[in-house]
Amino acid sequence: MALLQIAEPDAPPVARERKRAIGIDLGTTHSLVATVRNGLPVVLADDDGRPLVPSVVRYRGDGVDVGYAAVAQQSRDPENTIVSVKRMMGRGLADLDDDRRFPYQFVDAPGMVRIATRAGIKSPVEVSADILRVLKARGEAQLGGPIDAAVVTVPAYFDDAQRQATKDAARLAGLPVLRLLNEPTAAAVAYGLDNASRGTFAVFDLGGGTFDISILRLTRGVFEVLATNGDAALGGDDFDHRVFCWIIEDAKLPPLSPADARLLLGKAREAKEMLTGHAEAPIVATLSTGQKIHATLTAETFTAITRTLVQKTLGPVRRALRDARLAPADIDGVVLVGGATRMREIRRTVAEFFGQPPLTNLNPDEVVALGAAVQANALAGNRAEGDDWLLLDVIPLSLGVETMGGLVEKIIPRNATIPIARAQEFTTFKDGQTAMAIHVVQGEREKVSDVRSLARFELRGIPPMAAGAARIRVTYNVDADGLLSVTAREEASGIEASIAVKPSYGLSDDEVARMLQDANAHAADDARARALAEAQVEADQLLEVTRAALAADGDLLDATERAALDAALRMLAAARGTGDADALRSALDAANRASGTLAQRRMDRGVQRALAGKSIDQVV
Amino acid sequence: MIDFTRNHFELFGLPRAFAVDTDALESAYRALQHDTHPDRHAHAGDAERRAALQSSARVNEAYRTLRNPVERGRYLLALAGIDALDETDTSLPLPFLEAQLERREAADEAREAGDLPALDALVASIRAEARQREAALGVALDAGRLPEARGLVRELTFLQKVAADVEAIADALVDEAG
Ligand SMILES: Nc1ncnc2c1ncn2[C@@H]1O[C@H](COP(=O)(O)OP(=O)(O)OP(=O)(O)O)[C@@H](O)[C@H]1O
Ligand SMILES: [Mg+2]
């Protein structure tokens, strides 16, 4: 337990049941679930031994298929079979420049696009949750009980809206998510721990729908991300689409039905994958019109039609290196992640850019899930002795606020190590102004119209003053998931307004609550039982941890503080036994608040000790 | 929680001076993150997790400030009660401004010509000039010549902006080629 570690880093952990922890790679084309077994991360396969779950969801009239079952029907029922839903996460219809590639009936909704299916209108969050449920069930079945802790990976270049959407999906699926982890960082963990590496590494992750490049430094058990960059809408899907367009041109096809389009996209992907090991690939298909397609795609043609896509990866690579203040020659190793890095042109281009052959001794499909499992295991408290590594990650895109003239004032710069908090002061520009609109944005450009709008909110009730007299302090907090929350405060009056950034691009809390209700309509009792069970586990943990903390560092509290904490703990122990989830929840909240002082002081003491160990004579 | 009343130098147990032992800074930073990072408290109670989040954020902010020479200089001035980037006085020496204007023009020309190496060379020359000024900043701060140090921080901050602008131009060029 963390509190115990602070007191005595070398003390053996308290004997405690192992937590069921899983890592999930929620991919554009494939998803996986992994866990740590006997100290080693392993991917959990299905009954047929297949490790991957295709990220495909089909809404039947009477249920949902996920994975291979959905893939099997996708060209027969394209409108109701959702593929690549990850590309729609946290995105409005206007953001999907490739929306015509999908055969779906999109419904434009505020914030995030929706899809009309025969099972009703679905948000990408709900579709993703359906995939996550399958992975969770696989984890539960193979670990023998409910999951205690999960880590879900996201592309490093995902913005706040996309991260929030992913977290909402996990919540909807009932996963206890301890952390959103960046995919290249997860890969680095799996790779670094496996190879006991040191040095500066580039992780080049080209998956089905997203591209990330992260530059990391590995030293003495610390994985420090120096910079990250990427393109949240570039991946193997785009290569498929180029081939698809080539087939249409080559065979001079008229506009296609959704089913035929799906069919040919599938053929395009097969051909692309085949070209990784062959000089040419045949493309054979029969359309619903009876027309037969018979074409041959050569490696040369493929290289020519996809050259600009390959080149598109280099801009982000350049920028990431520059932000890390490094040259290609400073990189000790390039780790390839993602199925699309199997393509020869990608390997050649990466090797040429970095002047060294990339490292490919890991399975590029599995490495992200394996790293996530290792992290989940550690966060759950299952760390083994000497397993003392730490991840320091960054935020991929600058966070700012709109200022006069539609310009962006950056508050947190890209590649800042998270967690981070930054405040900025603003003032009123009119006499007697009593409200101030705060527009939270993310991106690198200077004009508000060129960056992503995350949320708008208003600080009201500012006492009327002369223009420029009010002092409004806007604070941005980014947590270890890379998620932003914002507070604004008028300093003189203490008027405060705060939001977690969600409304304009994520789903509102109400919406998530409604979806949870829909999903659990017939399982309301289960949900209540689960809430109680979770609260009980939490209560046991808090009681255990706090008692241990008191035993070790009880001297940090004075008599009154001690009495208050003891009382809160007694209340909690009593509520634990009643079986009333609400009462237990409020007792938990009270005990958490009461233990705050102790937690803070112990952290301070732990820090003093850590510093004392390092440089006792330098501490001022 | 860490002691929020301490300044960044105290937090890392370093002497308050421009010259920083980067190894000592790094190892103190890692030691503090080892204790405060939210990952280390992921399964703890709300209060402890909140404390960890705040502490870890503060440690990151302090590290970011001390690692970067311009930020460090600006911070030392702030500790001495001087706001180097005070918006009521934004003056910079004319020759300096003229030199930067020329750089921007050179960047625009390189962009027109699609000359990426020229843009890279421009950024390198800005960086080289910045390094010289950083050294001068250290000398001025150590000698207690605070107004001079303030001027250097302002110029260095401006140089960072110019470098970022040129980089953005280079980015646009690379993206067009892609
Ligand atoms: N042999 C191969 N040659 C070329 N491409 C391949 C090969 N094998 C797989 N791919 C491509 O890799 C992509 C899938 O990669 P992966 O499973 O890593 O992506 P993902 O994790 O689902 O997506 P993302 O990480 O972008 O969300 C697909 O576009 C697939 O066609
Ligand atoms: Mg992936």
What does this structure look like?
The complex is a heterodimer of chains A (620) and B (178). Chain A is an alpha+beta fold. Chain A is 38% helix and 25% strand. Chain A is built from 16 helices and 27 strands. In chain A, strand 1 and strand 2 form a beta hairpin. The N terminus and C terminus of chain A are likely disordered. Chain B is mainly alpha-helical and 178 residues long. Helix content of chain B is 74%, strand content 0%. In chain B, 43% of the residues are buried. Classes of the chains: A alpha+beta (620), B mainly alpha (178). At the A-B interface, helix 1, helix 8, helix 9, helix 11 and strand 19 of A face helix 2, helix 3 and helix 7 of B. The site of magnesium ion has 6 residues of chain A, from loops.
Question: Which CATH class of the largest domain in chain B is shown?
Answer: Mainly Alpha
Number of strands of chain A: 27
| Span between termini of chain A | 30 Å
- Overall shape of chain A: it is globular
pLDDT averaged residue by residue of chain B? 91
Following the backbone from N to C, one meets helices and strands of chain B in this order, namely HHHHHHH
Rounded mean pLDDT of chain A is: 86
* Major sheet size, sense and barrel closure of chain A: 6 strands, mixed
Number of strands of chain B: 0
Spans of chain B of at least 5 consecutive residues whose pLDDT stays below 50 are none
Provide a count of the helices of chain B: 7
Relative strand content of chain B? under 5%
Could you tell me the radius of gyration of chain B in angstroms? Answer: 20 Å
